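[job 4471] stage=fold_predict status=RUNNING
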Amino acid sequence: MKLTRHNKKLSFYEKERITEMKYKMIQESNYCCSVCGNKFNGANMPQIAHCINKGKQTYKKYGYEIINHRFNLRITCDKCNSSVMIDPESEEGKLLRESIEQDIINKA
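[job 4471] inference complete, writing structure tokens
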């Protein structure tokens, strides 16, 4: 099965799915940053960080399925958000993309 690259705007339902996934990830993280471990509070709000960034070029090259996949997301605080970013062409980036593609294929 070949993985397709969907280069489209997110639908309302896809945005809802991502929002639900974000809240589930926050709960699973015990309301702590996945990098520094600090608890989230009014001054330290949770953010979704993309390991492979969600820029226009990466969406075009890898597709929304890869960029918004659970494996590519981390719950972080503002201070740690950029620390999870990786180069999609690095060895780590290639391994991440391969694991995401395999997960998508397995769920199909």
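[job 4471] summary: Residues 18 and 68 are 8 Å apart (CA to CA).
[job 4471] exit 0
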